[in-house]
Amino acid sequence: MSIIEGEDIDIHDFLNVCLGKDIAFYAFTRPDSNTLEFGAQIEGETEKYDELKECFAKSGFVFAPFHANEKYQSHFIRREISKINQESLQLIKSKADIALQNHDDLHISSREEYQAQIEFMLADLKGEKLEKAILSRIELLENKGRKDAVSSFLNLRDTYPKAFVFMVDIPKVGLWIGATPERLVRKCESTFETMALAGTQKLDGRKLENISWEQKEIDEQAYVVEYIQSVFDKYQLKDVETDGPRTAAAGNIVHLKTLFKTRAEINNQELSNFVKDLHPTPAVCGLSKDLALDLIHRVENHDREYYAGYLGPIEENGDLSLFVNLRSMKVLENSMALFVGGGITADSLPEKEWMETCFKAQTLLNVIK
After folding, report:
1. Domain Chorismate-utilising enzyme C-terminal spans what residues (predicted)?
2. Measured between alpha carbons, how far is 66 from 306 in angstroms, rounded to an integer?
């Protein structure tokens, strides 16, 4: 956990210095916490890993893609600096400046294209080849870029206190910021938790108890819950407490959420395998997972990169807190690429699904603009 020492340290300026240097770093706040946590690796390149267990017995931060390949790999940032103070600032200032990075062109789907992609998916879904698939798209915000990243991150922190709000910068990999509502896995001593999050609609000033859900959204949530329960069963984790589904707010958007919690012991190998089985969850991929992944790769005209991957801190004592990379954007030099998506089932209506992605994009756009 970071410790901010001295009233002469300005967080905004400190993080901007980090952005200008050839170092990997991260900053985040946990749900329902105002404490800014920070870590930086100032020597060498980040460690790439295939299985999460390779990162255990270390302290730092993991940043994994939606689907690992040669171009987008999982990274572990060692926590060599964790305090925000004058000593850290001077050490970071002594590092080399970061070189301007060339970014690949991003495919921006039009409304018509996105709806056509949904129609293509519906053929498989109505043919009962699979139950659900997630379709994503990119929305580009021009004239906002690295110079706006720190203020955008701090604004997200203030606006979404119940989310995991983060900024991660890895040289030659990219800069990402976001405010995700979805926990992947939390392990604290003998307590082990995860959640199912699915279904989306606007809150629009209503009380949570007055929110009603359509059958399509209830079914989406049920798919995710059933899958997570099957993973718990695979590892014979007993006495799993469930809470939900309940309506939960994330800014001006609400979701159906079910929490899972157990105090069962789980060793490092099992924990690593559990995360591998869970990621990507049906909430960001679909069911069955293999068929949904194949359909996504055939339909989407962009690489999700680290969107819908996972990220979060890992401690040397084995504790970890991982979140799904949602409500997030990749920050380019002079623009920001917002990644958004929605769950497609046999009952989906293309126009309504497009509007859902627009609602989700607004959770970030309202803050950034």
Report:
1. 111-360
2. 6
Largest CA distance in the chain: 63
Pick the closest to residue 231 from 190, 263, 275 (CA basis): 275
Query: Quick one: what percent of the chain has pLDDT higher than 70?
Result: 96
The whole-number pLDDT of residue 103 equals 64
Q: Could you tell me if 240 and 232 are in contact, meaning their C-beta atoms sit under 8 angstroms apart?
A: yes
Supply the pTM of this predicted model. 0.94
Residue 201 CA to residue 361 CA, distance in Å, equals 13
How many Å apart are CA 267 and CA 222, to the nearest integer?
28
pLDDT the model gives residue 7: 54
Q: With b meaning 16 or more CB within 10 Å and e meaning fewer, what string describes 29-39?
A: bbbeeeebbbb
Please, is 116 exposed, middle or buried when counting C-beta atoms within 10 Å of its C-beta (0-12, 13-18, 19+)?
A: middle
Structure tokens at 79: 């926590």
Give me 280's structure tokens: 């990507």
Return the axis-axis angle of helices 11-19 and 149-159, rounded to nearest 10°: 130
Element (H, E) at 89: helix 86-93
Q: Which residues contact 178 (CB under 8 A, 6 or more apart)?
A: 156, 165, 166, 325, 326, 327, 328, 329, 364
Could you identify the residue written with the tokens 């896995």? Answer: 185
The domains of the chain, with CATH numbers, are 111-143+190-304+332-368 (3.60.120.10)
